[in-house]
């Protein structure tokens, strides 16, 4: 009986894990990875209006690349510089958006987690 209860719990847990939203399927942060978690919520609030912030999929703004694609285009330091530059001059079709240095690091940490997913 006890075993069955444990088993039912496991099944429920895995169903839960499988059932949560689109984003959580592509990104499951470890508890230690606080910077990436902060980066994800920052991106949800500040970038997701235009970018698909998961690995792939259609961005709300057609020209804005998915963060998974951006991940493959830049090294971490390169991406930090890019986002810093975007803060002053924008990026072609993207208007300048000021990202605080700490938020920048968090967003880059998040985008790094998209590697190979
Ligand atoms: C108002 C819409 C909009 C928002 C909000 C936005 N972006 Fe963009 N972003 C774009 C568009 C459109 C492009 C593509 C520009 C182009 O190449 O013409 C882009 C391009 C980029 C690029 C360059 C990608 C490359 O491969 O060259 C990076 C990096 C980027 N965005 C990061 C961010 C981050 C980080 C945020 C959140 C702080 C953000 N963007 C918020 C519209 C947006």
Summarize the biggest pleated sheet: none
The mean pLDDT is: 80
Strand content: under 5%
Indicate the CATH topology: Cytochrome Bc1 Complex, Chain D, domain 2
Unreliable runs: none
Total number of strands:
0
Structural class call reads mainly alpha
Please tally the helical runs, counting DSSP H or I stretches of 4 or more residues.
6
N-to-C series of helices and strands: HHHHHH
Question: Ions, cofactors, ligands: which are bound?
Answer: heme C
Termini separation: 39 Å
Shape: globular
CATH class: Mainly Alpha
What oligomeric state best describes the polypeptide chains here? single chain
Describe it for me?
This protein has 117 residues and is mainly α. It has a single domain (22-112), classed as Cytochrome Bc1 Complex, Chain D, domain 2. It has 6 helices and no strands. It has helices at residues 2-19, 22-26, 34-46, 67-73, 76-89, 101-112. Helix 3 crosses helix 6 and helix 5 (76-89) crosses helix 6. The longest helix is centred in the N-terminal third of the chain and has 18 residues, at 2-19. 21% of the residues are buried. The mean pLDDT is 80.
């Amino acid at each position: 009986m006890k075993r069955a209860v444990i088993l039912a719990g496991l099944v429920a847990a895995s169903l839960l894990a499988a059932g949560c939203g689109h984003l959580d399927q592509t990104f499951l942060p470890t508890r230690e990875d606080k910077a990436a978690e902060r980066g994800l919520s920052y991106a949800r609030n500040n970038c997701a209006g235009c970018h698909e912030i998961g690995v792939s999929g259609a961005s709300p703004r057609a020209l804005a690349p998915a963060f998974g694609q951006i991940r493959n285009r830049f090294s971490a330091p390169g991406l930090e510089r890019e986002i810093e530059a975007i803060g002053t001059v924008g990026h072609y079709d993207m208007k300048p958006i000021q990202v605080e240095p700490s938020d920048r690091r968090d967003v880059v940490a998040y985008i790094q987690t998209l590697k190979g997913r």
